[in-house]
Specification:
The complex is a heterodimer. Chain A is about 40% helix and about 15% strand. Chain A is built from 6 helices and 3 strands; from the N terminus they run ααβββαααα. In chain A, strands 1-2-3 form a 3-stranded antiparallel sheet. In chain B, about 40% of the residues lie in helices and about 15% in strands. In chain B, a hairpin with a 4-residue loop joins strand 11 and strand 12.
């Protein structure tokens, strides 16, 4: 019984698989954006390099990080989910994902996230670990906020 | 007679189940559980004699004052203080330390003076001194640590100089379990005319404490780690020092005479207790002291030493691949604290896995970030024992860790 409980979080082995073999870890020769996030309380870290095609399409992303299985898996899953999206689409996905993670359990629509990303929703069974799943998304936000096309010229510091 | 099963019956929370498993509470270095007697003492105060202390001539106020001061007396005797007016109530050990840093420290630490600490201090016995040193341009030094998590006492003589004004050391490390030779440290401090402070947050709950024998100038500890309620801490200071100290907080309760222009201070210890004190929790701590005395602190220490020996052997026998257990392996100089790291399984994942088995452990830096970093890790898993823990619970812990490593490594249960 308790084993099923623990599987609530490390569901379908997706998280464990991505933690052990994180995707998109090769450093990029050229990249346009970088994003970082650190959780000072546990020392977990996430870093992204993003290579754009044109000004808007996320063509390549590199993920590196340090920390627990959920943090590592989240970074790896995120890197797969945003590859091929435009900056705008990735931003929208990020907002939607973070909102979903903050919603009470049971208020998520079935199939809200397609594919492996939905494995992260199960982390909500362990509220204290939700921040582990969100760290990578902060790093993504950090990277995307630096994209020229998303910054209003007026808001640039003089 | 120390009967652990009988003791467990006094702790209502220990019969709880977590995810269908009996609670195995191994986070005692963070806070201890409370026996029925302490919970009852709190309820008794609020139901039967709730009133403010040291004022008013009405019956309830007198009863509350008596019980409140009685609790102070109990704590004083518990640490063998010369007198109960040397025992100051605070919120916790951190507040006790801040009181010393602001009151004694502001007056006695000057530019170029040195404060000697150990590398295994809790943030509470580190940050107040960093801040004081910054304000005063004083210098903080550290006694080096050996590989097994003990202090390199050979280096102490050269580190205590004529500029050393304070040596402050944790008696038992909350992150490693190391029991430091505080008596020897105190002697060395006093030889050079430095004051000596003992952080007893982890030692007072687990072993007999005798401030006169330790000959410490300051002792700080917290009630909630020794079966008492949260929100009540203790500061003991030797009389000749306490007499020279200015109040840390001022206002009500701590004054003798007040005019519109100025005020004079009440006698010890009230001079250091501004505002309505934490009456209920002081009384609760008094009740916790009664409980500990009924068991005998020597017996508590013996029980935990046996448990520590047992756990050291169990971990050694399990011989878990890639697991580093920190701290000394001699139970004579180690309390029941087991901090460990596994190379490939993160402490938080291990902690979550153990939680699902009903095992409560702490994961993280244990408020000793520089120390945990010096071990080369960002966090550890820590299991810490108390008087109600059993060998059976150690077995459950070791089996749980073994199972967790298998789960996260090759996915098999």
């Amino acid at each position: 019984m308790d084993q099923n409980n623990i599987d609530d979080i490390y569901r379908d082995r997706v998280i464990l698989d991505h933690c052990r073999n994180p995707r998109n870890t090769s450093l990029l020769d050229h990249f346009d954006l970088t994003g970082d996030a650190i959780n000072p309380f546990c020392g977990d870290e996430v870093h992204f390099q993003i290579g754009l095609r044109g000004e808007n399409l996320i063509e390549r992303i590199q993920f590196s990080g340090d920390g627990c299985a959920i943090n590592m898996a989240s970074g790896s899953l995120l890197s797969e989910a945003v590859t091929g999206l435009t900056v705008k689409e990735a931003t929208q996905l990020s907002i939607r994902f973070v909102e979903s993670m903050r919603k009470p359990i049971g208020e998520n629509a079935e199939g809200e996230f397609i594919g492996e990303l939905s494995a992260l929703i199960s982390v909500k069974n362990f509220p204290v670990r939700v921040k582990c799943a969100l760290l990578a998304w902060s790093a993504l936000e950090d990277a995307l906020s630096k994209n020229k096309s998303t910054i209003e010229p007026d808001s640039l510091p003089m | 007679m120390f009967d652990v099963e009988k003791i467990r019956d006094d702790f209502p929370i220990l019969s709880k189940t977590i995810y269908g498993n009996p609670l195995v509470y191994l986070d005692n270095a963070a806070t201890s559980q409370k026996p029925r007697q302490v919970i009852d003492a709190l309820v008794d105060y609020y139901e039967n004699y709730n009133a403010n202390v040291h004022r008013g001539v009405h019956t309830l106020s007198m009863e509350a004052t008596d019980k409140f001061e009685d609790a102070r007396e109990k704590v004083s005797t518990f640490i063998n203080s010369e007198s109960s007016d040397l025992v100051v109530w605070t919120r916790n050990a951190s507040e006790s330390l801040n009181l010393i840093a602001y009151s004694w420290g502001e007056a006695n630490v000057h530019e170029g003076d040195e404060i000697l600490l150990t590398p295994m201090e809790h943030h509470s016995n580190l940050v107040p001194w960093q801040e004081l040193a910054r304000r005063k341009n004083a210098v903080i030094k550290f006694i080096p640590m050996r590989g097994n998590g003990t202090l390199d006492m050979d280096k102490v003589d050269e580190l205590i100089t004529e500029r050393t004004v304070l040596v402050s050391a944790v008696h038992m490390s909350n992150a490693l379990g190391t029991i430091n030779p505080v008596r020897e440290l105190g002697e060395k401090a006093h030889q050079q005319g430095a004051k000596f402070l003992v952080d007893g947050a982890q030692s007072v709950p687990h072993m007999p404490t005798n401030v006169q024998e330790l000959d410490c100038d300051f002792l700080v500890f917290s009630g909630h780690k020794m079966l008492g309620p949260t929100g009540i801490g203790v500061l003991y200071v030797k009389r000749d020092i306490l007499n020279t100290m200015e109040p840390f907080l001022t206002g009500g309760e701590m004054v003798l005479d007040v005019s519109y222009q100025e005020a004079s201070w009440a006698d010890l210890p009230m001079k250091f207790e501004a505002g309505t004190p934490n009456i209920a929790d002081s009384i609760g701590l008094g009740s916790a002291v009664d409980y500990l005395n009924s068991l005998g602190m020597e017996n508590v220490r013996t029980h935990e030493k046996n448990l520590t020996t047992y756990a050291l052997n169990r971990f050694k026998k399990a011989d878990l691949d890639g697991m580093d257990l920190f701290g000394p392996d001699d139970p004579e100089i180690r309390g029941g604290v087991f901090s460990f790291n596994t190379v490939d399984v993160h402490p938080h994942d291990l902690g979550t896995f153990l939680d699902r088995k009903g095992i409560a452990v702490r994961t993280g830096h244990h408020c000793a970030m520089p120390l945990v970093r010096s071990l080369g890790v960002a966090a550890t898993v820590r299991a810490s024992f108390y008087l109600y823990n059993t060998e059976r619970e150690v077995d459950i812990l070791v089996d749980g860790v073994t199972e967790a490593l298998r789960y996260f490594r090759d996915g098999s249960e």
